[in-house]
Request: fold
Amino acid sequence: MKNIRNFSIIAHIDHGKSTLSDRIIQQSKIISDRDFQDQILDNMDIERERGITIKSQTVCIPYTAKDNQPYMLNLIDTPGHVDFTYEVSRALASCEGALLLIDASQGVEAQTLANLYLAMESDLEIIPVINKIDLPSADIERVKEQIENDLGLDANTAMLTSAKAGTGIIDLMEGIIRYLPAPTGDIKKPLKAIIFDSHYDAYRGTVVHIRVFDGSICAGDKIVFMSNNAEYKVEEVGIFQIVKISKKELKAGEVGYIIAGIKTVSDTKCGDTITLTNNRCQKHKSGFKEAKPVVFSSIYPVSSDDYEELVLSIEKLKLNDASLVYEKDSSAALGFGFRCGFLGLLHLDVVQERLEREYNLSLILTAPSVRYQIFLNNGEMEIIDNPALYPDPTIIGYAKEPFIKASIIVPAKYMGAVMNLCLERRGINKNYEYLTSDRLEMTFDLPLAEVIYDFYDKLKSITQGYGSFDYEIIDYRETDLAKLDILINGDRVDALSQLVHKDRAVSRARVACEKLKQAIPRQMFKIAIQGAIGGKIISRETISAFRKDVTAKCYGGDISRKRKLLEKQKKGKKRMKMIGQVEIPQSAFLSVLTSGDK
Reply:
């Protein structure tokens, strides 16, 4: 075990984690230059297109050090976006050390601090790595000061690299061996292995990613999952070296995979402990956090015939995305679907795109919502995340909504713009402190409902890309809540309903009505689009009807002839409106999803 190192790469988004992973893999020669491609560990199309890491990936890298000793470096590449902090926490629970990557031009940002605290909670050894040192705007001395002052780490141990140019990679790999501890564990003890990830293979079933802490596991062993006592016989064990490579056994300290013919997707629960059926370990390994969804939306198939396909697809996706939470749901307008919980709006966007691409589905999503606590007059408390379940306002005493503690790091010149943005979103300014003479950290208490729409985009826009943002949910606070209904041609469309703060209801309703006016095609009759709270209409847009020029054939003569024809047309339009059905296209539902403030 002394020649094994288990480590993770953590950083703020876009600081170069995937590129650094590429260079380390190239250095180890486990893949030929001909087969190599950039972002080699990002195996989803959506990750490559957007340039982000969504799912943690594992790779075992053989390396011969300068002292001619062979080492096995088990690398777990993690996402950087705030929505995927859960992926990071799972990866860190399987490691002894972490590389904290910092951009030499951007410096320490909000997620850098958040990931550092996650690593410290897991009691990991941390090596600061200053990346992108070849950039013209790189300021290494300033970043070293930030490492000392903001992070409280020793800047003298910081490694200097340029992942893009391949500078400093050998020194970094030597640093991993020198500074990070070898795993501890006892091969003679009963098997104790932790599940930190899993993915679905159409031919082999569930491939379970494990880290072995004690004992060993090999093909033919009978294992049990401690959370649900499900028993399986191991068919294959092995390690990841871009592709799966089978081995005789996995021993204490090693990271790899097992295949055991697991077909029930719910059996593999991340954070669960695996042990042998006839030689159990005493207690399961702790250290995993449960995924806590913060944004809720319903997913429906465009065609009701695709519902069975959606059921299977969402089960398979759940296996590849352990943080997705879902339950069955139905809507008068859209039929059967699922109410899903997501870690944030980016997570929602990614899940929708993966379902549509990987499983060839056409989907409709309802407007995103957060989870509210509704206190009724009789003293009962209900938790509501779906506007369709909102109780009658006459029986509601008061409501509470989730608040977050937002940490925003920006250059000092953007302080006023960020302050205005947060106060517009009902934020409470708690604190601000200067990290350096021109950078400050601002702390706000913000309602989560105001953040999930387009807060991150607005922040990036007003700070010209230099603002960084991280948050954690702190508590629930009393709010003035209302249910905003959207009426199309006088009929309520339950899938377009939203729960909003009363002060924001009018602006939210106006934006939704304007977006729907653009998205719904014109009909032969006039269509009214209205926003309403209870029986009170608070906004309206009208889609004018197609009009046939019925008077074109009337040349000259008495005006009453034309008037008679127009009156006849008017009656026909009125009757058509009474019996006409408005078909709402998928694009109309999606347009309401992006209905942030203008």
